[in-house]
Amino acid sequence: MKFRHLHLVSILTASLFTAPLARADDHDETPLGEQMEMISDAFKLVRRQVEDASANASTLEQLATIRAAAEKGLAFEPAYAAEKPAAERTAFIAKYREDMRTFIATIDEVAAALTAGDNPLATELVAKMRSAQRSGHKAYRAPKD
C-alpha cells in the first residue's frame, strides 16, 4: 500500500517538472515565439468560449490580446527563414507577413461578429483562424527532427 502511494507521488512530481519543459518546446524562444505564445494562450480561451454569448466580453478581450501580439509578430521573421536559401528567404518572409495580415483580418471579423451578437458566425471564423494557425505553423516553423 505504501509503495503504491510512493509510486503515485513520484509520478505526480515528475509530471510537475516535465510539463513546463514540454510547454517550452511549443514555441521558439525568440521575440516572435513570445508573441506566438501569447496568441496561443489567448486563442485557447477564445476557442473554448466563442459559442457562449454570455462570454462575449471576455472573448473580445482575448481577441484584442491576440491581435496585439499578431501585430507585434509582423515586425519579426520566423527563425526558420534563416534556414531558407537566400533566393527563397525574401518571398518566404513576405508570405509569412501576408498570412499574418490575413489572420489579423480574421480576428477583426470575429470581433465584429461577436459585437453584433452573431456567435455562430464567430464560431465559424474561429475555426478558420484555427486552420490558419495550423497551416502557418506547418509552413513557418522548422520541422521537428
Blueprint (SSEs and pairs):
Blueprint: H1 2-24, H2 31-49, H3 56-73, H4 86-115, H5 119-140
Helix pairs in contact: 2-3, 3-4, 4-5
Structure summary:
By secondary structure, the protein is mainly alpha-helical. It contains 5 helices and no strands. The termini are far apart.
List keywords for this structure.
single chain; 145 residues; mainly alpha; Four Helix Bundle (Hemerythrin (Met), subunit A); Cyt_c/b562; Cytochrome b562
Low-pLDDT windows of residues: 15-26
Write the CATH homologous superfamily.
Cytochrome c/b562
Secondary-structure-based class equals: mainly alpha
The CATH architecture category equals Up-down Bundle
Number of strands: 0
Q: What is the CATH first-level class name?
A: Mainly Alpha
Give me the Rg, rounded: 19 Å
Distance between the termini: 42 Å
Number of helices: 5
* Structural domain count: 1
Describe this protein's structure.
Residues 1-24 form the signal peptide. The protein has a single domain (29-140), classed as Up-down Bundle (Four Helix Bundle (Hemerythrin (Met), subunit A)). It is 77% helix and 0% strand. It has helices spanning 2-24, 31-49, 56-73, 86-115, 119-140. Helix 2 packs antiparallel against helix 3 (56-73), helix 3 (56-73) runs antiparallel to helix 4 and helix 4 runs antiparallel to helix 5. The chain is mostly helical. The longest helix has 30 residues, at 86-115.
